[in-house]
Fold:
Amino acid sequence: MAGSIVILTGAGISKESGIDTFRDAGGLWSQVRIEDVATPSAFVRNPQLVQAFYNMRRHALQAPAIQPNAAHVALARLEAEWKGKVILVTQNIDDLHQRAGSKNILAIHGELLKSRCFACGNVVEERGDLGAASTCIACAEIGTLRPHVVWFNEMPFFMDEAIAAIEACDIFVSIGTSGAVYPAAGLVEYANAAGARTIEINLEPSDVASAFAEKRYGKATDLVPAFVSELLGS
Ligand code: APR
Structure:
């Protein structure tokens, strides 16, 4: 009987689609300070700067050149063809996994193409700019829309579901993440406690590489399709 697989992805899986990672040379956090654009206090202090940062990323994500790559497509194929359960826990806020066809996704850091009203909590798809004049379609409040993404010092979404899935999984594979940010970086420990097979696929060893039994280093578009073919062939 095919067991259950949990996949954790990070920015590295979207790098070859043209989306910057955060901590590589030239990454996003070398361009702007986290404290200025990705914390609740930054939003209180200078909402225009925070909105502009996410408006720019929301526009960039929708550029025609930004498409799912072979690694995203391989994970969607795995979900479609694997006889057991496949759950994708992603730290990414881009929509490339969704566009590649993955369905069973827990977007624990939120989604760039959604906005949330901090007055009523309503969440809607958002493809345009957010700002002080943005109006909530649910409660009609003006200026209360924020990106539906998780900032530092905020709790990620779906962590209970992610941990429950990992505690029951047979295979846990981490792809394209530096292992620098908790609680996502600690998820592998639940897989080890569950006796699951653990694999790290990344360009280079992550900060939590020692927690993985198997490690494969190289580009996601090379390693992930090969890994999926191996699993489906098994
Ligand atoms: N193939 C595979 N891995 C790659 C590739 C590639 N082509 N290019 C880069 N990587 C790897 C890098 O070696 C690095 O370890 O992807 C990882 C990206 O790490 P980060 O930039 O730290 O991104 P991530 O791990 O997703 O960050 C986690 O931090 O800033 C927050 O909320 C943000 O979700 C993000 C979280």
